Amino acid sequence: MKSKQSGFTLVEIAIVLVIVGLLLGGVLKGQELITSGKAKALYADKAALQTAYNIYQDRFRALPGDDATAANRFTGQACGVAGAGVSAINSGAGLGCSNGNGNGAIGAAPAVTNGAIAGWSTPLPAGTTFANDGNNEAFKMFQHLRAAQLIKTDGLTPFSMPTNNTGGITVVNTAAAYVGQQPSLMFIHQTAVPGNIAGALDAANDDGFTNLGGIRAAANGAAQNPNSVTVGVPYNNAGGFNISTNLL
After folding, report:
1. Per-residue confidence of the chain (248 residues) as pLDDT tens digits?
2. φ/ψ bin of 44: left (φ > 0), alpha (ψ from -120 to 50), beta (otherwise)
3. pTM of the predicted model, to two decimals?
4. Which strands sit side by side in the sheet containing 216-219, from one edge to the other?
5. Which region, left, alpha or beta, applies to residue 234 given φ > 0 means left and ψ of -120 to 50 means alpha?
6. Helix (H, G, I), strand (E, B) or coil at 42
7. For residue 75, what are the domain limits?
8. 8: in domain
């Protein structure tokens, strides 16, 4: 007597393959939505900083960072300035905000070039300079905006920079980070952005290339792409990118 063999029919196999395809498609679509969402959030951070800057200027008739009366305008607690004692940074003890020089421009004193700054997660793009102290009005800008409750920054230091949603930081500078960038009063830099997110941000708001257009980028610590390179260099997923674009 022959035994009856059992197995899947072609219809059943086809149904399983369709289900697997739908599941894979859903996963890939979900990853795409996450990437797009993070890219939009990074660009929204830039817009929020522009808005905070304009509100500060309208409210106090001074530029954040350059404000020469910030020390009298805000308390030490609002500025995150430490006084005496273990918990003084939260107590309001000590001095107020660091004043700017009030000359109507946000000055950035060059201090560190082509290297890591203490407390930063990634190196800077080649050619950029920042001073992480009270002598740099670009760093004071975040302190003044935070004191005015227009932005939030992480950490307890007076000049802590905002952390972006990819784990890097947001900084500003008055000098272009990359050759060929459009002239601007100030540039915003977002560090440690994964290649897929950086590429999505650039593609949605510019041309999708690291070395062309208004949004420029380079792999963390890599040399800048010269303006003489006319062929667009695409983003890759090999590592993080530092992104720079006009703020003002």
Report:
1. 555 556 667 767 777 777 777 666 666 556 777 788 889 889 998 899 999 999 999 999 999 989 999 888 887 777 765 444 433 333 444 456 788 888 888 876 444 433 444 333 344 544 444 444 556 787 788 888 888 989 876 554 555 677 788 887 788 877 777 777 888 888 888 888 999 999 999 999 999 998 888 898 877 656 555 556 678 888 888 778 888 888 88
2. alpha
3. 0.71
4. 170-173, 187-194, 240-246, 216-219
5. beta
6. helix
7. 36-246
8. no
Residue 6 domain flag: no
Alpha carbon distance 21, 15 (integer Å): 10
Number of Cβ atoms within 10 Å of the Cβ of 47: 10
Is 119 within the bounds of a domain? yes
CA 26 to chain centre: 29
